[in-house]
Write a structure and sequence with these properties.
- The structure is a homotrimer.
- With about 375 residues, the first copy, chain A, is mainly α.
- Chain A contains 14 helices and 2 strands.
- In chain A, helix 6 runs parallel beside helix 13 and helix 7 packs antiparallel against helix 13.
- The termini of chain A are far apart.
């Protein structure tokens, strides 16, 4: 327990852990106070996500290169996955899909853009591993295409395609998971030299002992799962009370909450002029969501959901995801960055956020 | 006045200034002769635009680097702005929007393509500053995305979104102008070394004295404004008489007339193997229209227009602008050019022009 | 005849020639057995396409550089053209259009992807002429844009545009053929040094004598034309019996059958680490279909078709072609390849194939 307590003392973000018990108490005492429960659960999820991320990296560091990379790649977006599973069980498929699309957009535009901006404010021009970024952007592009084609086809066809969509979604989910596995084989085994510098771990922090890391992983996952239920139950009510559209909540708020811990790592890497790290986290996380989290959710919906979930997205989300991945591909193509590149990525994100914020309800 | 007269004697394009008084006389004598007035005002605007461009550069040369760059960037598309304001005051929002989208397409496809072709007919392979072009193409891409997202969202949503569109358009206009300001800060101040070779000024011409330049700037702007009114009033009638669709007139004719002066500079740069100059003018002008002229027109519509103007474009125009900026990004990525690259850019422009020319009326 | 017989003995694919007479006998004896005739004609077309390809290259090798290049470029997709003409004469415009779009997608995703995968399984990282690939991908991108703009405009406009579409299609066809001619002038004459390493010919095989090559070219073209009629007549019935959608048949099956011979060359080049050859065949063939075969079919439809054919594609096909060419442009941009790049291209192709396979009939 000692390294855990030392970490908590050291890292102010973890002081937010105090909100974890508060959420449970509040959800008992005031189950109707949606906005309060929403705010409390956001504040509680952020430090838990940071702990999860640190524990995953510690286990990965102990288990050696390939297995560790596999672990990092699989559990790297555990918070997003747990939140989405809570929404899936509640049958809130619109929220699940919005949070998938939103996570891709938030990682490629907000996380990457803020990293470029924060790094660029301190360093005149920053260089990063162009080959690695290009390969990852390429993977992400292809993954996104795979994810979005069904929606594009459905838009251009006015018939009822429900059965077709379910069949296609399952087929695509299997295909995407296979591609994800082959991608791990490629980046961890056959061609790992290309990905060397974009490691997920934050070199500054010492890894925990294996036992503590595993216990943290298990315990915190349970806590995130419990709080996610409060979060999912309160989020729509809070959105209504705060005057936010459900599209905005799913796309922007959930995505930023779920990715908070990784953003902290990416931003700190950028400030230390280790932009490889930031680009790797941002694009790696985005492609993990597209290639792993999304298809797992589709398949899980047959087991734990009230009904099967398909991969049919709201057309506006399709456009946004497509623009986001293409922007990332174009921007990372040069391997150089300055503050204005980050500003423009953030601006595109703001355009999306503004559009979704102003969009009248019932739009999803 | 002497340098002005010398310039006029020297530059055959300026002999067209003789049409300026003819326009005013003709608009009194034959206010119904739309085709005649249209042709005359086109012939009169072209030399005035050239004068405006030269005067702006002269003022810029006198006021020093940063302020001069700012001036050039702000007044570089003054002709387009003045014509669009005339259309705005007349409530012809379809024409305003078509001319915005058309100017982006004409700059990225026609101006760039003709520069590559003209340069390539004289020089086997031409190289240009790849970093600068890539950055500018990136800016343009992001600006275009920002401009087009509302239209894309609106297309995918069948509800009445008028109020939403107006709120969003004002928000985007403010955002774009802020991005434009930050872009100037970036290219003129913090990272100006990247843009060094893509200066707007044509080194071959001597700058005028400040007084003359300022007087020309003021006087010619008034003349352009007056002739623009004749142009805007006659353009629809002329289109009808000439059998051209309004989409073609707004998108192709107005854009080519407004950009004639800059095209002359870009083409001459390409012939002199100074392709940096040509690419800088073409892409810089396109991004200025997207990031500065368009949002200024949206905000101005609240002051001088009969009704607020939004940023909702005709879907066909959205597709064309998107393809044009993506083509520019792909083509300028290599930093090399030959005649066939220019031919293909011109071919894409011809595809658009042909489509709009043949499109039956009432299509906008 | 001796080299021809030697070739047949040497190359197992040519043993399939035995199916050529079988097709003719079967089509007499069992004209209603669609699935059988379909399978037999596929088996017969594949070796004939290989012979055509070899004969074309032999003629090209004899007639010298420029004329040979012209021949290769014009007759390189003769099989696809002959099949499409058979479908055109039968008035099956949906099949013609699907096979055009499908050939572009199959060449850029399947042929390129399988080349990368097969090459990558043998060689760790493969490099190829980046400048050449980039130029060809650029040409292909621009050609595709030209081909798809009318569909995009039509989608965004709900009026009846039949007359407009026919006018536009003829105009575009003329424009595309002109661009194709200029492209040949560029790649064979003024700038041929850029295309040097991407020659179409397979250096391993000795060219045939001119007389034999010309006779083979003529005789085999007639055979392909005759078998194509059986193929086109049986394909829809076979699709029904096999439970495949017409979209799947046109887009996937016809495209793979028509391109089988070129695929064999491209794959063999990739295994021999001559990836320039593979990329050249794949992208060159795709742009030839877009710039030459498609417009020729439009113009031919006025002469031999029951009615004029336009260039209006099913929106889903537009999306797929657009994604395919953009993927090719992004992927070939780096000039390097490994097995996973090929895997991902194949995955995108599988996404398309799966979508079309599952799509319920009446979707085109």
């Amino acid at each position: 327990m000692k390294p855990l307590l030392a970490e908590i003392r050291h890292n102010p973000m973890l002081w937010l852990l105090a909100f974890v018990p508060v959420v449970f108490v509040a959800s008992r005492l005031a189950p109707e106070a949606d906005t309060l429960l929403f705010a409390l659960s956001v504040l509680a999820i952020v430090p838990l996500a940071a702990l999860l991320s640190h524990a995953t990296e510690s286990v990965a560091a102990k288990t050696g290169d390939a297995a560790g990379g596999l672990l990092n790649a699989t559990l790297g977006n555990l918070t997003e996955l747990v939140i989405a599973i809570a929404a899936l069980r509640a049958g809130q498929y619109t929220l699940v899909k919005a949070s998938i699309a939103g996570a891709i957009v938030a990682n490629t535009l907000f996380m990457l853009g803020a990293s470029f901006l924060l790094g660029g404010l301190k360093h005149h021009v920053q260089e990063y591993n162009r080959a690695g970024a290009r390969l990852q952007a390429g993977l992400l592009f292809l993954a996104t295409v795979a994810l979005l084609v069904p929606s594009a086809v459905a838009v251009s066809d006015s018939r009822d395609l429900t059965a077709f969509m379910h069949q296609l979604s399952v087929g695509l989910a299997v295909l995407l998971i296979a591609a994800y596995g082959l991608g791990l084989l490629f980046s961890l085994k056959t061609h790992r030299e290309f990905f060397a510098s974009a490691e997920h771990g934050d070199a500054g922090e010492a890894p925990w002992p294996l036992g503590l890391a595993l216990a943290t992983l298990a315990g915190v996952t349970v806590l995130v799962a419990l709080i996610s239920e409060v979060f999912v139950e309160s989020v729509q009510g809070a959105a209504l009370e705060l005057g936010m559209s459900p599209a905005f909540v799913g796309f922007i708020v959930v995505a930023l909450v779920g990715g908070a811990a990784e953003m902290a790592s990416a931003f700190s890497g950028a400030r230390k002029n280790r932009l490889d790290l930031s680009v790797g986290i941002a694009l790696g996380s985005a492609s993990q969501i597209a290639l792993f989290v999304a298809p797992v959710l589709v398949l899980l919906s047959y087991v734990i959901g009230p009904a099967p979930m398909d991969l049919l997205f709201w057309p506006g989300a399709v456009v946004m995801v497509f623009i986001a991945t293409m922007t990332a591909a174009l921007v990372t193509n040069s391997g150089r960055s300055a503050w204005f590149v980050g500003t423009l990525l953030l601006m595109v994100f703001t355009v999306f956020a503004m559009t979704l914020y102003l969009l009248p309800p019932r739009a999803q």
